[in-house]
Design a protein that fits this description.
two-stranded antiparallel ribbon, 138 residues, single chain
Length: 138
């Protein structure tokens, strides 16, 4: 499978980040689709068998620098559990809006994500906020 990134409009973020993201997409074969102000992986990912994950399996990710993208975030969040879906909220100019959502295949994956990645130092002076999404909202 060849990786794809379907995005309407022009991506105006730094060329280095764009090139790194596109190289990662080619390497992994991952598919990202941008729609309604968010760029989405999965929901379900390719090869998924089974039903949609239960409520309580989604986490909110905040305090993201605007120039951080999926090639840095998805591998980090996959380390703690199997991702069902990852959504990075985007501006019309192609920068991220500073937050994202990760839905895991189970509640256990979401709990591991919070325990492991909350306050994770993504870069100097940048600690992630990772917390539960209220069950009524997920």
């Amino acid at each position: 499978m060849v990786g794809t990134w379907q995005q309407p409009g022009r991506h105006s973020a730094g060329e280095g980040n764009k090139a790194a993201l596109e190289a990662w997409i080619r390497e992994t074969g991952i598919r990202l689709v941008q729609v309604n102000g968010q760029r989405k992986y999965g929901g379900p990912p390719s090869g998924w068998v089974g039903s949609r994950p239960p409520s309580g399996s989604e986490v909110f990710i905040g305090r993201l620098p605007q120039d951080v993208y999926e090639h840095q975030l998805i591998p980090l969040f996959q380390r703690v559990g199997r991702l069902y879906e990852f959504r990075l909220m985007m501006t019309f100019s192609g920068l991220n809006r500073g937050f994202a959502y990760a839905r895991y295949s189970s509640r256990r994956g979401a709990q591991a994500s919070i325990a492991t990645l909350h306050n994770h130092q993504l870069r100097p002076s940048c600690q992630l906020l990772v917390c539960e999404v209220p069950r009524s909202a997920s």
